[in-house]
Every structure is written in C-alpha cells, then in structure tokens.
Known about the structure:
Blueprint: H1 8-26, H2 28-41, H3 45-48, H4 50-64, H5 67-87, H6 91-97
Helix pairs in contact: 1-4, 1-5, 2-4
Amino acid sequence: xxxxxxxxxxxxxxxxxxxxxxxxxxxxxxxxxxxxxxxxxxxxxxxxxxxxxxxxxxxxxxxxxxxxxxxxxxxxxxxxxxxxxxxxxxxxxxxxxxxxxx
Length: 102
C-alpha cells in the first residue's frame, strides 16, 4: 500500500478536481465556444447554446470516463502530495511564490 494508498477524500474530491482542471484545459476549444455563446446570447443561452454545451459535456465526459486519464491525474496528485510531504508547501502555493514579473 504505502505511498499509493489514497484516502476517500483524495479519490472522491482531490483527484476529480485535478481531472476537472485538466479536462477543461484539454477541452479549451469547447470551453471557449460555450463561454462565447453564453456571452453573446445572454438570457437565451440555455436555448441557444445547447450545441456548444453538449460538445463541451461530451469532451469533458470522455476524459472523466477514460481510465488512462484518471491514472495520469492520480500520478500527478501523488507527485504533488509527495512534494508537499517533503517541503510542506502545496504545489499551487509554491508556484504563486515565484516572482511573476522581473
């Protein structure tokens, strides 16, 4: 078991969070189309953006249901967890600490 053992919160919350973020990156075209459609359609977006919404859902769901994608996100999570245990600094915070403008 050791390092690979995942708590429920990790399996059910933290890894799916990484999956959502990564899937949105990979479906960025669909995300943009849907966002643009919503901006353009205002209150009618539910009706007008069905096509874009379905395309986005399809793209995301394909990733969510892909075991290889889950594994990839799990490994990324474990790597971050490992780093955190070594340094005591969460990855996200570590990235924020780097000076952005020189």
